[in-house]
Amino acid sequence: MFISSCPTDGYFFEKFTKGCHKQMGDIVKLYRALEVEILVEIFNSLEGEWGQVMTDRARWELALEGYFYIVGFVCALRGEEIPLTNLAGIREHLEASGKSKRPHVVVALLGCFKNEHGDLNYHLLPVVNTTSSGLQPRKWIERAVTCCEQMGYMSGPLFRDLESGGRRKPSDFELQFFRRLLEVQNCRPDLVGAGFDVEEQYGVSRSFRRGATSRAADMGLPPSVVNMNNRWRTVESARGKQASLTICDHYTDVRITLNLQRQCDLSFN
After folding, report:
1. Are the CB atoms for 114 and 231 separated by under 8 Å?
2. DSSP category for residue 167
3. pLDDT per residue over 130-178, tens digit each?
């Protein structure tokens, strides 16, 4: 407790601001869900660029861009969660997951993920190699890993800022995402209508996640499958406990769910 003569620290001003908020309300902006058909067109463009001659740095940037889009959608991640991808975690299971009786690829996240703290343990998300809509998660994940190795790093954040050594931000990919959407708008106005303001309607923070969830609803998937893919958990189901599994134990546990996860990935996408 302290005494202040500042007029904005008083009891009256606190009540005044609350009253203004109740009178004026909030402006809530919901980003539009990204349709899977638009994402397929984006990857057609990315694939065309991949075949061109470019520097290692440019190819690395392109691989990370493709990874950002495809993992954000198939794993139903928010934009700030995608850069939590850990390179060592993916590399550890990349080969073994491809030889599984149900071939898949594992996305490994490390950090605070959906209100769970994974600073010491990975969050492993299995996805199919190729979805029914033609998206190819394994191809772009392998490309991103290979390009990172060529750039000289084998561990740490996949989305590494080469200058600072830290983790890149999702906003680094937003302008490029808008450019891809404008390209789709120009060549496929049936998907993105002419005059549609893509920068106002879409965003990397929620469009991928909302697109995946909307796809699930359109396919009539049960809530259990949606919850599993989106990793929505309540305090009651967690019961205040946090997993203490090693990455190997965790992966063994994750593989048991592949049958259900396969339904999820194939239907979502």
Report:
1. yes
2. B
3. 988 899 999 999 999 999 999 999 999 999 998 888 899 999 999 999 9
pTM confidence score: 0.77
Q: Which CATH number goes with the domain that contains 177?
A: 1.10.443
The total of structural domains in the chain comes to 1
DSSP annotation of 10 reads: S
pLDDT in tens, 189-205: 999 988 889 999 999 99
Integer Cα distance of 128 and 135 in angstroms: 10
Q: Look up residue 223 and give its amino acid.
A: P
Please report whether residue 31 resides in a domain: no
Residue 14, domain member (yes or no): no
- Euclidean distance between CA atoms 79 and 239, whole angstroms: 27
Tell me the two tokens of residue 22: 């109740």
Q: Look at residue 117 and give its three-state secondary structure.
A: strand
Instruction: Give domain status of residue 21, yes or no.
Output: no
| 206 within 8 A of 235, measured Cβ to Cβ | no
